[in-house]
User: Which sequence fits this backbone?
């Protein structure tokens, strides 16, 4: 197999997702954390902070290439949260400080929220320039952009705009905004876009489904609405743009927010979404088994198995990972399967509880396993 200059396997497929891939976010280097704190305290300018971000992103991209990854991201180094930073910059959306943070297993995040105060739209968005920077340094690798799913605005946004009490009015504006976003990133050169989505975790447990009912909604109807929102948002995407979705149960400082398998919404997720690939959590028992994959009904849908955890630094047993891939292949053609971490390494700027060295070792481990499974 072809090797790159760092003597790592070059993991090449015609289009992403790649056989060895990753979700996107990376641990923030200490220098970057310090610079963000200095900016917050007024000790450096926005331009000085951006210069630090640029330098650390360049370094992170090179490290991704060294690990053998074909897709590279900016590590979400310019964000403090994986979703709020993007959603706040949509027209009609504002940041606010709620009474408390988001509840995770044994802990809470810092308090931060978003509210919908006007007509939602996508116009001038700073992350377009962020993508252009990544695109320009990606070289012969694929620059991957990650943004929150449109469902996340519905899921996390506090509604303060009365016309959106009509769900269909909200749906029309939200999907139109995302169509504009997708086209704008495409025009900037993006050919690999990932929608990150934790809203699906509501359906994975009876507790979550009960919460939906308590809110006066029917879980089955809501899941179909979420699917329709995704499908309408990406309906006009260019043919050569790959759009994947990462489905997450929460990832904050190595903790989680939800549990349960994909069973209750497996037909909707695996048989009803028009995305090109699905990044799925499968790193522990909270994610259930592979049986729901039997509802995959398209030969062109790539299933990226998140069998390697980003929550701790211990490397998984290679043979066990290979065995689990074979188990998943009982339900989906092995050529439709890929391998990745179950989530990013830093969904918020605090990051998970492992070192940068352990993070890079995890990514190299994924590439090595993928190379042996699909290319040996």
Assistant:
């Amino acid at each position: 197999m072809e090797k790159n200059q760092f003597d790592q396997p070059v993991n090449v497929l015609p289009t992403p997702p790649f056989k060895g891939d990753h979700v996107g976010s990376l641990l923030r280097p200490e220098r970057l954390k310090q610079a963000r704190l200095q900016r917050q305290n007024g000790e450096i300018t926005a331009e000085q902070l951006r210069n630090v971000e640029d330098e650390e992103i360049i370094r992170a991209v090179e490290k991704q290439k060294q690990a053998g990854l074909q897709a590279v991201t900016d590590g979400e180094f310019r964000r403090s949260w994986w979703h709020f930073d993007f959603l706040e910059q949509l027209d009609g959306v504002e940041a606010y400080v709620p009474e408390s943070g988001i509840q995770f297993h044994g802990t809470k995040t810092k308090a931060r929220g978003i509210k919908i105060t006007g007509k939602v739209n996508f116009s001038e968005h700073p992350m377009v320039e962020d993508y252009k920077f990544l695109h320009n340094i990606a070289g012969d690798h694929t620059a991957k952009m990650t943004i929150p799913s449109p469902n996340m605005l519905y899921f996390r946004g506090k509604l303060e705009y009365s016309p959106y009490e009509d769900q269909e009015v909200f749906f029309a504006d939200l999907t139109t905004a995302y169509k504009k976003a997708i086209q704008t990133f495409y025009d900037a050169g993006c050919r690999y876009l990932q929608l990150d989505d934790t809203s699906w975790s509501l359906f994975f447990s009876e507790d979550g489904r009960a919460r939906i009912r308590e809110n006066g909604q029917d879980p089955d109807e809501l899941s179909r609405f979420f699917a329709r929102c995704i499908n309408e948002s990406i309906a006009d995407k260019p043919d050569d743009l790959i759009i994947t979705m990462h489905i997450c149960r929460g990832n904050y400082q190595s903790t989680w927010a939800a549990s349960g398998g994909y069973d209750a919404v497996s037909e909707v997720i695996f048989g009803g979404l028009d995305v090109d690939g699905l990044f799925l959590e499968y790193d522990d028992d909270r994610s259930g088994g592979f049986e729901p994959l039997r509802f995959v009904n398209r030969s062109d849908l790539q299933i990226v198995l998140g069998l390697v955890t980003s929550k701790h630094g211990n490397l998984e047993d290679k043979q066990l990972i290979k065995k689990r891939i074979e188990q998943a292949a009982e339900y989906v053609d092995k050529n439709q399967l890929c391998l990745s971490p179950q989530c990013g390494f830093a969904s918020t700027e605090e990051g998970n509880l492992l070192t940068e060295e352990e993070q890079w070792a995890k990514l190299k481990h994924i590439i090595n396993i993928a190379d042996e499974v699909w290319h040996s």
